[in-house]
Amino acid sequence: MAVTRLRNIKGPHATEIERKIKRGNTLRQASWWRGYRGLAALLLVVLCTCAGAGLLLHLSSLDSDITETLVRQRELVSPQPRAYGVPCSEDYDNYKRYPGCTPQKCGRVVTDGVVTREEALASILDLHSGALSMGKQFVNIYRWEGVSVSNVRGRIQAAIAEAFGLDPELMYLTKPTFFSRINSTAARTQHDEYWHPHIDKVTYGSFDYTSLLYLSDYGSDFTGGRFIFMDHNANRTVEPRTGRVSFFSSGSENLHRVEKVTWGTRYAITVSFTCDPEHAISDPALP
Ligand SMILES: *[C@@H]1O[C@H](CO)[C@@H](O)[C@H](O)[C@H]1NC(C)=O
Ligand SMILES: *[C@@H]1O[C@H](CO)[C@@H](O)[C@H](O)[C@H]1NC(C)=O
């Protein structure tokens, strides 16, 4: 505006007026600039604060102790499972040995080729339709028909037998076999504190093989909640993926924990097997 007006000034005082106006403009521009500078600085501070908070939030949702990711959520491990061998611990020596079942090879295996995404999602639907009552964080599922309808349990059993060279006929379902739903709300009882490191065979003597069937996705359905194998030299994680099955020998060679869930809800089913027929529980397929 000022510039347009300036062009219209004519006569002897024009240059002086021009100078004044120009000076005024310069001053105004300078003060605008100062104001702008102030605003820019403010914006920068706001941006930095947001970025900092975002980074903190991001970092707090990450577990800095994780040193290696075995399988990412986005990867599809199919049809061949991915296996990681580890030397067996001596835990099994304290129990009667059952040839063809008791672990002689130990390790961890991950596969996305045993249970389809659809089957996993159907399990969640069963849950929400009231087929299961979810009053607690952990629900016992031995009487849950959903597991047996498509013989998910049988397929997991076969996959474990194949990976560890066992006779599937000599493996028995044992308890606890349960459904877990974990969100960021703190667990109320010690039992529910899933993030503590533990060894399944120490906690439940009858366990020989533990399997986990994931029903939701790390990263999109929840954050945190990664499964972590705690080895002497590394913390190795498996990122949950809907339909992913992860299984491992239950002794101290597979000390593990689950990272705290920081956002969303993590659904999983734990299916446990024993070699000891005395600890067998009835098949969910045959109530
Ligand atoms: C977690 O689940 C419990 C049980 O359903 C619910 O009461 C609680 O509000 C949930 N927390 C969050 C953060 O969604
Ligand atoms: C693994 O994580 C635990 C805690 O979660 C930590 O104390 C330990 O130092 C980590 N181990 C390695 C090798 O980073």
Automatic annotation (TrEMBL):
State a GO cellular component annotated for this protein: membrane
Pfam families given in the database record: 2OG-FeII_Oxy_3
User: Does the record's keyword annotation contain Metal-binding?
Assistant: yes
- What residue stretches are annotated with the Fe2OG dioxygenase domain? 177-276
Source organism superkingdom: Eukaryota
The portions of this protein that span the membrane are 38-59
Cofactors required: L-ascorbate
List keywords of the entry alphabetically.
Dioxygenase, Iron, Membrane, Metal-binding, Oxidoreductase, Transmembrane, Transmembrane helix
A GO molecular function for this record?
Answer: dioxygenase activity
Protein name per UniProt: 2-oxoglutarate and iron dependent oxygenase domain containing 3
